[in-house]
Design a protein that fits this description.
The complex is a heterotrimer of chains A (about 550), B (about 400) and C (about 425). Chain B is mostly helical and about 400 residues long. Chain B has one domain. Chain B is built from 15 helices and 4 strands. The longest helix of chain B is centred in the N-terminal third of the chain and has 27 residues. Chain C has a 7-stranded mixed β-sheet, sandwiched between helices. In chain C, strands 2-1-3-4-5 form a 5-stranded parallel β-sheet, with helices on both faces. Chain C is globular and about 65 Å long. The chains are: A mainly alpha (about 550), B mainly alpha (about 400), C alpha/beta (about 425).
């Protein structure tokens, strides 16, 4: 789809610009230092490029900043036949030096001026220096943070000027850290000590790195007092880091708990409420994730919106498949819960292979919308990733909605009635068959929604469901079958316990310990954390 | 099972079990004839059984024994273990460790003491739990003891606190999953993901020789017959009747004064040991044991063999195991892309339309034929009934 | 018990007996007018994701060869089986291919454990296996040709690049807990120490297969990387665990300029399942990238797109290894004038075929190839920009020089050594001795 769209745009571009293309040729190749350097870049290997790029960011030209930015983003190309430097945009190609739209016959006519990591590092530091006087505070902040990595690159005069002009206290603080790092290099011991003082307590990783390097250098020179000051400063940072690490770990635990919760909520309905040992539950999650993929394929230009569309779509797809499974297979098996295990296991094999046949065994690419990327920064050492944050919120919202449906709607009432006493419910005029089908559909649909969320964290492939099925069962059984509240508490506590164990025991042993813990816990409380009392408890 | 227990133990075992008798006869014939025709009949002859076929059948026999072990607890005691693959794998590992020790200095690093994987993980000496495995008798004890002990500990915990039904199934699954993760770890000292492989010989006989393979095949057949008889002995004894009572209503059995947990524990341990023996015979024939055998999905498959064959009959388990695995071998060769559809479909159809498995289906057909021909009504089916 | 059950049993057992016999009988020998090529790649299960492509590659090569008139005037016939990512099944299917189907050569396996499972069978039945995936080395079988990279053709050059070109001083060796990462990391650790890297500057981490929660580990890497020295991650993380790993890196704001990740198991095909935007600049080391510029490569890609019917499908390193392996085998069959395993094997040594990156691949007497090593940076379009390459082809080393237990071992399957693990100090062959002529 996207490529077709691009083709059309190119075509339009060709039509409108073909006439004046040649007249513009001269202004496309201005006689500037920047242009000359760009021409050199075209032919250079990566080693020469390094020197050229270092020179590039020093060029005093109004276009240097833009050039560096385009280059660092990998959008800088040149036309093969006349070596005109161009920017490859989303839908059009423009000449860098005069901004004219350029027409090309095939994508092979232009070639990328490639960059690698070391070039990007140079460019970013150059950009930071140029942007430190930007009128936008957030740009200045980013520039200042980048300067922390390369404090050497900015001369003291510029830095002092930037600090003097800076009004924003946050940016100013970071700039004073930059100055602190710079003064570590100073020849004067007092300046160095003042620098250490300025850095103490900062949580920026680059500050910690600079101090660590300083300690190494000072140790080899035998500057004992400075070593001590810097070590103290580092220790102060370490103490703060430790506190942050605990909070961060708790957050990780909750995030893992949210994933477990999402994976398990659907099962809490199909297994917990209905008593179906639903081995195809994981495949319902998988279907939800594939729905997300399909939705993104259908609307490639609105990735940000795609998730909002995918959620109801996944609910419908998985829900309908769930209803079909219930009507087709499971309704013949009520009262034989262990046989539902066999049948649903067969269904899960079929669904896996179906997906493999339709979408190929390869993983599918599901894009992360921009609003889900990045971190919510509490301080430089404690950044909460947005995607996990959203997933925690999302899992709680889904759970709350589900609880609402169960407690406050007619369907919920009928559903509870059917689970508690089927013959009685039936004699009261409830169509138990349909309630069963819709209940199973609801559970499956929620699993589908979980699939949308999980597609943002992990692979979307035919085996995806297998990864969650066992964990889901553990959560439901641990929390207490048939109890949504138990599922929530179960998922969150397993997530947190797992994460608290992980730094100490490693990822695998932590997981083994959690499993052993569940096994032992079930011995103590054979009906889980929140056991149902009475008749409903006597299933299986 | 509706008739009185009468006659001596032999009568109980053999005479009252006509289907089983026939099965045993077939098994005995297969165990003897297949190796003989592999060794004695010249290649190319119509009656020659290739080594490939023999190894394949040998694998089926091991699976069949495993299925019998599962049927013993599921069919007769209502314990649905989703972790029986773990006992099978433990037995396999015990045998694998013996075979590893037999390699001696013929490994690639020529270390007389340590297996190759330990050499490259920088282990300097054999860990304590590998001690003794150079002795065949010790390994054989461990084949029984390792799964038996695990089953005992697990059973004591689970049955005494009255964990039943799906809860028990799920925690058995947790058990095998935890073991899977543990055995995957290279630090455990069981070869990690690669497991144990590249075996050379057993009791001094070359594992790649056809005679050794034939002997292993024969041993598997005999083990299956033995396992079948042991299980049969248990279920036809008074103990077996208590088990069925427990299966049908655990609380009622308890109120009658039976110590339910000890009955369950006993049969669970026996079953785990049978699974261990199956694993031990499986490993030298397929030439590798690795943590994949602990995968929960494998344990579910065992349940499916039993269900397809017919639960609570013992011989149904044997038939189911052979049938499903033959189907798997055939489909993966003939319809590589479609075989999961077929296998999945088979499970759904079996549960829907053959609640008593293939054995039950046959009984039904015969029933119809007989009633239409006006023959004598055929009493209670041998298939044990009752709620799950 | 009813009589009827007996009949049922009788028939079932007869059926089993018949099929057993049928299986035995069908050990008919391959017709003389075809050469059978076994394809042993998982088409279902966890490894299907990687291996299906290689099955298609072999089938494509067979088709191309048949268009050229086959080999020795005979048509090639591919026999495809599905070992279903089940390791014991690999051994069983190998036996089926060699005994029942009587194939002349097998192209197959991906994971180390599948190869280890197959090994005793091909050795027993004197088969010929071409193994096309980068692996941990420490092995050289008389019956296997390894066309993927040995550690010295991937891991060591990549680390050299990190040290020399990126100035990296601190290393995180992160891998999935199985033999390939374990061995590779062990070799790297010893190599890094020999380069003067301090033990404190090496962090080693293992995770299980399919690990999906990378929060803690990425956070640890971040902390490890803020000690003032340039830090890089050397990743031997396998398959499915990569997507959540890279997503977590991106989400926690780890940029390739700050902490580059160089991966040995992430190629074009894996990237096609990623959202690559946040990955740009991370590295991979291989012997082939789709972006390599050569006529052979262009032709191969075109062929592949035509065969698979989609312009979107990418090519990758194990495909090139399959391509080289197949062409070498075909050439060796022509050279030997026979498809018999022993003759083909002898003809294999020293055989040369063009690789796809513009050079020539040579089969050495240790059953490993000489190949160039390339390092590429991930681009937004899911391709790699080649940022570094070795000047000449690197011969694959079966036994690494950086581990004490294998540094004295060499492999040479020609006379007079004729041994897969020959100890150059004790002048004796460790265990694997040629059993053929």
């Amino acid at each position: 789809m996207l490529s077709v769209f691009r083709q059309v745009m190119l075509y339009l571009a060709v039509l409108c610009c073909a006439v004046n293309a040649h007249a513009a040729a001269d202004s496309m190749k201005p006689d500037t230092e920047l242009h000359a350097l760009a021409q050199q870049l075209i032919d250079a290997g990566f080693r020469e490029k390094k020197a050229l790029t270092e020179a590039l960011v020093e060029i005093n030209d109004p276009k240097t900043l833009e050039f560096s930015q385009v280059m660092v983003n990998g959008d800088l190309y040149y036309r093969k036949d006349d070596r005109v430097v161009v920017i490859k945009g989303e839908d059009k190609i423009t000449s860098f030096f005069n901004g004219e739209v350029i027409e090309i016959a095939s994508s092979r006519d232009i070639k990328k001026i490639s960059v690698n990591n070391s070039l990007r590092t140079i460019l970013r530091s150059g950009i930071a220096r140029l942007q430190i006087f930007s009128p936008v505070a957030s740009v200045r902040k980013q520039a200042a943070v980048n300067l922390l990595k390369s404090a050497d690159d900015i001369d003291s005069v510029t830095l002092s000027r930037a600090m003097a002009e800076e009004k924003n206290s946050e940016v100013k603080d970071i700039l004073s850290l930059v100055q602190g790092i710079k003064s570590l290099e100073s020849g004067d011991s007092a300046t160095r000590l003042a620098g250490i003082d300025a850095l103490a307590g900062s949580l920026y990783p680059d500050v910690r790195g600079a101090l660590a390097n300083f300690v190494r250098a000072a140790e080899s020179d035998g500057r004992a007092s400075e070593v001590k000051a810097a070590t103290d400063a580092l220790e102060k940072i370490e103490d703060l880091l430790r506190v942050n690490a605990v909070i961060e770990n708790l957050y990780f635990g909750l995030a893992l708990g949210a994933v477990l919760l999402l994976a398990a909520i659907g099962l809490a309905i199909t297994f917990g409420v209905m008593g179906v040992i639903n081995m195809a539950h994981g495949e319902m999650i998988m279907l939800g994730a594939y729905t997300t993929y399909v939705v993104q394929q259908l609307m490639p230009d609105h990735i940000g919106l795609s998730l909002a569309v995918a959620i109801p779509a996944a609910f419908l797809v998985s829900g309908l498949v769930g209803v079909a499974i219930e009507r087709g297979v499971i309704r013949h098996l009520y009262g034989r819960p262990l046989e539902t295990l066999l049948a649903t296991f067969g269904i899960s094999l079929v669904l896996q292979q179906a997906v493999r046949s339709i979408f190929s065994p390869l993983n599918r690419e599901v894009a992360t919308p921009d609003w889900m990327a990045g971190t919510f920064m509490i301080n430089p050492a404690l950044e909460l990733t947005y995607n996990r944050l959203y997933i925690i919120i999302f899992s709680l919202v889904v759970l709350a909605l589900l609880a609402l449906v169960l407690k406050r709607t007619l369907f919920g009432l009928q559903m509870r009635a059917v689970t508690m006493n089927r013959p009685m419910a039936s004699s009261m005029g409830i169509r138990t068959g349909w309630v069963d089908a819709l209940t199973f559909g609801l559970g499956s649909g929620i699993a589908g929604i979980a699939g949308v969320a999980l597609s943002q964290l992990t692979n979307v492939g035919p085996n995806m469901g297998q990864a969650y099925i066992i964990d889901s069962f553990m959560v439901v059984v641990f929390g207490g079958v048939g109890n949504l509240w138990g599922t929530l508490v179960g998922a969150m506590s397993l997530g947190v316990v797992n994460k608290l164990l992980e730094p100490w025991a490693g990822a695998v042993v932590a997981k083994i310990l959690v499993l052993v813990f569940i096994i032992l816990f079930i011995q103590k409380r054979p009906r889980g954390l929140f056991a149902l009392k009475g008749r409903a408890a006597d299933m299986g | 099972m509706s008739q009185e227990i009468k006659g001596g133990p032999l009568t109980r075992l053999i005479m009252n079990d006509k289907a089983g008798r026939k099965l045993l006869l077939v098994l005995l014939l297969v165990s003897v004839l297949v190796p003989l025709s592999n060794l004695l009949v010249p290649e190319g002859s119509l009656f020659h059984v290739s080594t490939f076929t023999m190894t394949l059948l040998g694998k089926y026999l091991c699976y069949a024994l495993l299925a019998v072990a599962v049927d013993l607890i599921w069919g007769y005691c209502g314990i649905l273990s989703l972790g029986h693959g773990a006992f099978f794998a433990l037995g396999g590992y015990a045998m694998g460790m013996y075979l590893m020790r037999q390699i001696g200095d013929r490994g690639v690093y020529a270390n007389p003491e340590l297996p190759d994987f330990m050499v490259f993980l920088n282990w300097t000496e054999l860990p304590w739990y590998w001690q003794g495995f150079d002795q065949f008798w010790f390994a054989m004890i461990m084949v029984l003891a390792a799964p038996g002990l695990l089953a005992f500990v697990f059973g004591v915990l689970a049955f005494r606190s009255r964990v039943t039904g799906v809860y028990l199934s799920i925690i058995t699954q947790a058990l095998t999953y935890a073991l899977l993760l543990a055995f995957f770890r290279n630090d455990m000292g069981f070869g990690g993901n690669n497991g144990l492989t590249d075996f050379k010989d057993i009791l001094g006989f070359d594992l790649q020789a056809d005679t050794t393979r034939a002997a292993l095949f024969f041993a598997s057949g005999i083990a299956l017959i033995g396992g079948y008889l042991i299980s049969r002995f248990i279920v036809t004894s008074k103990l077996g009747r208590v088990l069925v009572a427990i299966r049908d209503s655990e609380s009622r059995a308890r109120f009658l004064g039976y110590r339910v947990e000890w009955y369950k524990l006993f049969v669970f341990v026996v079953s785990s040991m049978l699974a261990g023996v199956a694993g031990a015979l499986y490993v030298p024939q397929v030439g590798i044991i690795n943590p994949g055998e602990f995968a929960p999905i494998n344990s579910i498959e065992i349940i499916i063999w039993v269900a397809v064959g017919g639960r609570g009959t013992l011989y149904g388990a044997v038939i189911g195991a052979v049938l499903v695995n033959y189907a798997k071998t055939y489909f993966t060769g003939a319809f590589a892309e479609l075989w999961l559809f077929m296998l999945g479909g088979l499970f759904v159809l079996t549960t829907l339309y053959l609640p008593k498995g293939v054995v039950g289906l046959w009984a039904q057909i015969q029933e119809k034929r007989r009633s239409s021909s006006g023959g004598p009504g055929g009493g209670q089916s041998a298939t044990a009934e009752g709620k799950v | 018990m009813k009589k009827t059950d007996l009949n049922a049993l009788g028939k079932v057992t007869k059926f089993i007996g018949m099929t057993a016999l049928a299986a035995g009988v069908s050990l008919a020998h391959a017709a003389d007018d075809t050469i059978k090529v076994g394809v042993l790649h998982s088409l279902s299960g966890t490894m299907a994701i990687s291996e299906t492509t290689l099955k298609d590659t072999v089938l494509m090569m067979v088709e191309e060869q048949n268009k050229k008139g086959g080999l020795l005037g005979k048509k090639l016939e591919a026999v495809v089986v599905d070992p279903a990512s089940n390791w014991p099944l690999f051994a069983e299917k190998t036996r089926e291919l060699l005994e029942k189907e009587d194939v002349d050569v097998i192209f197959g396996c991906w994971t180390s454990v599948s190869r280890k499972s197959v090994l005793p069978v091909v050795e027993e039945l004197n088969g010929l296996l071409f193994y096309p995936v980068q692996y941990e080395g420490e092995e050289s079988s008389y019956n296997v040709f390894y066309t993927g990279a040995a550690p010295n053709q991937q891991a060591i050059p990549a680390v050299d690049y990190l040290i020399n070109d990126l100035g990296v001083e601190r290393f995180v060796l992160a891998g999935t807990d199985y033999v390939y990462p374990r061995t590779t990391n062990k070799i790297l650790e010893s190599y890094l120490k020999s380069k003067g890297v301090d033990a404190k500057d090496i962090m080693i981490n293992y995770t299980p297969f399919g690990h999906s929660d990378w929060q803690t580990i990425v956070s640890d890497v971040k902390k490890f990387g803020s000690a003032g020295k340039k830090t890089a991650v050397v990743s031997t993380i396998n398959g499915d665990a990569n997507v959540p790993f890279y997503k977590e890196l991106a989400n926690q704001g780890v940029k390739s300029e700050d902490i580059p990740v160089v991966a040995f198991s992430v190629g074009e095909e894996e990237l096609s399942g990623f959202d690559t935007a946040p990955l740009v600049g991370h590295l991979a080391a291989w012997n082939y990238f789709q972006s390599a510029e050569s006529d052979q490569n262009e032709e191969f890609i075109e062929q592949w797109h035509k065969y698979i019917g989609s312009e979107k499908r990418v090519t990758n390193d194990p495909m090139e290894a399959t391509y080289i392996g197949f062409n070498m085998w075909a050439k060796a069959v022509e050279k030997a004038g026979s498809e018999e395993v022993d003759k083909v094997r002898t003809a294999m040594y020293g055989i040369e075929v063009p690789n796809l990156t513009g050079g020539t691949a040579v089969m050495n007497v240790n059953h490993h190839l000489s190949k160039p090593v390339l390092i590429g940076e991930i681009q937004e379009d899911g391709q790699f920009e080649i940022v570094w390459a070795t000047d000449e082809e690197v011969p694959g080393d079966a036994w690494t020089d950086y581990l004490p237990e294998s540094k004295n071992l060499i492999s040479d399957w020609t006379a007079p050594v004729n041994c897969g693990n020959y100890n150059t100090v004790t002048k004796s062959c460790g265990g694997a001795v040629a059993t053929g002529e």
